[in-house]
Amino acid sequence: MKDLGVFCGTFNPIHWGHLLMAESARDQFNLEKILLVTSKNPPHRHTDLLDGELRHHLVESAASENPFFEPSRLELDRQGPSYTVDTLRHLTKLYGETVRLNLIIGEDNVQYLCQWHESDELFQLCRILVAPRESRPEPPGSGSSSAKSLLSDIAHLEMIRCPHVDISSSVIRQRLRSGASVLYHVPAVVNQVLLSNRYYL
Q: What's this model's pTM, rounded to 2 decimal places?
């Protein structure tokens, strides 16, 4: 069975922390590739959100140097709110039973998973790979019991061994508006697009 990574997000904008999570998951779990799915209309986000097409262009730029990263327009091209379970359903039909879907999320989202739209089906459609909120001095393969224990009876969770990078999209937007540099918060190609188009100003 092949394993496919699925990383859904607003990517508002995409930054090195997102890319490090994705690459760490790909390497640790031997994922064939990772779909970077840009959310068009996330139910939980209504303000300070760059247009979906512009955010997706940033995702395409960020992914251009990694052959294992594939930007996906799946949610941009679908009408209505961007529910992750709908994306997983579509990918299940597209790839069939020979591919296992691996949903990549941050550890701060684990406590809310049961509140996600149709979470019961979501848990059946994928394995969930969780990036820790902070770096942990754990040996390879140990992982964090805190995140797993929350949903261990109803979902398949695995922890990603990933260095913690204290970068967030909200801080990047604030820095851009204050005139501060975001180079090395984001890839150089993304930085160039942000500055040349004066995004978030």
A: 0.90
Q: Residue 180 is encoded by which pair of tokens? A: 């501060």
Q: Is residue 152 helix, strand or coil?
A: coil
Phi/psi-derived region of residue 82, left when phi > 0, alpha when psi is between -120 and 50, beta in every other case: beta
DSSP 68-86: TEEEE-TTTSSSS---HHH
| Residue appearing with tokens 């390497």 | 27
> CB 77: neighbour CB atoms within 10 A?
9
Sign of the C-alpha dihedral, residues 166, 167, 169, 170?
positive
Residue 171 belongs to some domain of the structure? no
In angstroms, rounded to a whole number, what is the distance separating the alpha carbons of residues 187 and 62? 6
**pLDDT tens digits, 136-157:** 444 444 444 555 666 777 899 9
Residue 198 within any structural domain of the chain: no
Q: Please, what is the average pLDDT of the chain?
A: 91
| Cross-sheet strand order for the sheet of 157-159 | 69-72, 33-38, 2-9, 99-106, 127-131, 157-159
The domain of 150 spans 2-166
